[in-house]
Amino acid sequence: MARMVTEFWVFGYGSLMWRPGFEYIERHQALLRGLHRGLCIYSHVHRGTPQRPGLVMGLDRGGACRGVAFRVDPARWPATVDYLRAREQVTMVYLERTVNVTLVTEPARSVAALTYVVDRSHEQYAGKLSLEEQLAFIRQGRGGSGPCDEYVTSVAEHIAELGLRDSTLESLHKALKG
After folding, report:
1. What digits encode the pLDDT tens for the residues 148-173?
2. What is the pLDDT of residues 11-54, one digit of tens each?
3. pTM value?
4. Average pLDDT, the chain
5. Among 35, 37, 115, 153, fewest CB within 10 Å belongs to which?
6. What is the set of domains in the chain, with CATH numbers?
7. Phi (first) and psi of residue 33, to 5 degrees
8. What share of the chain is helix, strand, coil (3-state, %, to 5)?
9. Are β-strands 54-72 and 142-143 bridged in parallel, bridged antiparallel, or unpaired?
């Protein structure tokens, strides 16, 4: 007999952390193992164009990622998924996945959450770029959601607000401010 899903969660690791764009009941820090956050996607829409791409976050293989998990009312779930697909799947660079995340609560607990993982076979997959290469794309990128440097600054600041460290983002943020 199939188990009925009673809780619906979304895991955010980039702009969803501070601008989810959907209603939620609960919000908690969460840990995802096996994938890490990185500026590994050439942005052709939100923070760049095909001619002048920016860079945006993706979940890529290996490591772990601290982010935010949002619990969504079951009645709002279909609308939330529709919204997320419209926002995250514009160019289909992400694969929609359900992953297990550990909520940073007392006591900690594991929940299944919807998230978006980079499709490594997609033409917009940038892979691992040097700091200098990342800065060049960040500085040139400007798309429908604004400049790429603003996005990277917001991600860096929000990660710091959560009490988390990301040395690459910290270095990029410092270079963009200087």
Report:
1. 999 999 999 998 998 988 899 999 99
2. 999 999 989 999 999 999 999 999 999 999 999 999 999 999 99
3. 0.92
4. 94
5. 153
6. 8-177 (3.10.490.10)
7. -100, 145
8. 30, 40, 35
9. unpaired
